[in-house]
Design the sequence.
């Protein structure tokens, strides 16, 4: 469960967004430059909001009133970058394993995910020894998803996940993301400028214009 | 044409001086370039210009500047003298001269290399729970390495070739502070052309082999 209110002043406008999210997919839709990525960055702790509050499963990650700002590495929020940001000098396997050692202390209670099984379930298990430059766009995205989920995040943020894919891969991956969401049962926030993707994936859709939500609909 | 080298001291000293200088430059230049590629503060441009200055100043100016610092009556020289230490006209002064002139080359290369690393890789590592130190050693440094290596080669070559400042602060004492460039200059001046040619051949072949080998190695590091 995510509860948040974020106010982030940018030089030409202010992003202001308040939302509550259970284990569903929320889509943030808006034109480029509408403040979507800024909002995700604030949630992940990659940038600091001007003011507001972020509560994830009753843990305070950020609060301007209480002066709390948990660093990114302790937030346990998965992030799928628009360019996937797979480490180019590591194999697929090394990429997916990267986060596991860092999160040992956080996951003593949970049973660990086997990253190789995760890769298998995403249909990229045979690529473990490849480097990212040897993968197609769709394969990169599956590996990046596996890497983000391997550390068992409590929230997954997806920044324009289909922008680098052709239409066929996109339609396939859209369905896969929906299936993954059903299996993982954590809140997803997905940013897109594509109306069709928004309609297909979103349990709820926020339309963002110059930082302020203009409509909120339940699909 | 080539004369048999009876004294190998300049060759050994040059390599020793260049290796120490490059080590110092690496240890100090990497953190500084990393820091200045990420933080911004008033007067940063002035600091960066000052760091780059030894690259463009005449070596005699560097030499004179160092004399004012470590000379017998220099700022640091006096303090060291009171402790019974002296750097001036020892091979450590040659190390100092080589370090100062090669530092900007390392700094510039490393800074460009760090800036070339896509910040999203570091952000991704952060969301995967890595500490900043781990990110530096497992993501930033490996990705910046080819550029840093280029800086290392340039610094090494510059340190090996240092002449003017070295002559002013370390002098030309055979068997003590005489590096290859100094030995070549004084061999030519005293008419020992054969010795000069041998030393020229040694330093040329050595430098060529180092650059060739490192370039080949860097070519293999493709992802």
Sequence:
């Amino acid at each position: 469960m995510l509860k948040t209110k974020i106010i982030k002043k940018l030089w030409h406008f202010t992003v202001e967004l308040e939302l509550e999210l259970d284990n569903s997919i929320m889509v943030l839709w808006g034109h480029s430059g509408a403040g979507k990525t800024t909002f995700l960055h604030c949630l992940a702790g990659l940038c600091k909001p001007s003011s507001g509050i972020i509560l994830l499963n009753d843990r305070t990650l950020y609060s301007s009133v209480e002066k709390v700002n948990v660093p990114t590495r302790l937030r346990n929020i998965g992030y799928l970058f628009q360019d996937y940001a797979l480490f180019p000098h590591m194999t697929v396997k090394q990429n997916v394993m990267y986060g596991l050692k860092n999160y040992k202390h956080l996951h003593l209670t949970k049973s660990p995910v086997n990253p190789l099984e995760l890769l298998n379930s995403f249909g990229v298990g045979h690529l473990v020894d490849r480097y990212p430059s040897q993968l197609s766009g769709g394969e990169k995205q599956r590996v990046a998803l596996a890497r983000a989920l391997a550390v068992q995040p409590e929230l997954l943020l997806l920044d324009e996940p289909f922008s680098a894919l052709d239409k066929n891969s996109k339609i396939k991956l859209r369905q896969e993301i929906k299936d993954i969401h059903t299996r993982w049962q954590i809140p997803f926030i997905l940013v897109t400028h594509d109306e069709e993707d928004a309609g297909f994936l979103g349990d709820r859709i926020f339309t963002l214009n110059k930082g302020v939500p203009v409509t909120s609909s339940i699909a | 044409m080539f004369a048999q080298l009876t004294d190998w001291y300049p060759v050994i000293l040059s390599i020793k001086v260049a290796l120490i200088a490059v080590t110092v430059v690496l240890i100090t230049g990497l953190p500084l370039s990393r820091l200045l590629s990420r933080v911004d503060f008033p007067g940063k441009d002035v600091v960066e210009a000052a760091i780059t200055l030894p690259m463009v100043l005449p070596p005699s100016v560097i030499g004179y500047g160092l004399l004012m610092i470590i000379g017998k009556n220099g700022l640091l020289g006096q303090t060291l003298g009171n402790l019974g230490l002296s750097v001036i006209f020892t091979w450590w002064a040659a190390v100092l001269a080589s370090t100062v002139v090669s530092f900007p080359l390392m700094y510039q290369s490393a800074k460009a290399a760090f800036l070339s690393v896509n910040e999203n890789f570091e952000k991704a590592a952060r969301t995967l729970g890595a500490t900043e130190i781990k990110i530096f050693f497992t993501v930033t440094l490996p990705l910046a390495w080819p550029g840093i290596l280029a800086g290392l080669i340039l610094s090494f070559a510059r340190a090996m070739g240092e002449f003017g400042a070295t002559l002013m602060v370390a002098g030309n004492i055979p068997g003590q502070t005489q590096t290859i460039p100094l030995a070549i200059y004084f061999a030519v001046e005293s008419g020992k052309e054969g010795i000069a040619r041998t030393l020229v051949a040694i330093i040329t072949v050595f430098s060529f082999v180092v650059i060739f080998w490192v370039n080949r190695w860097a070519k293999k590091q493709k992802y």
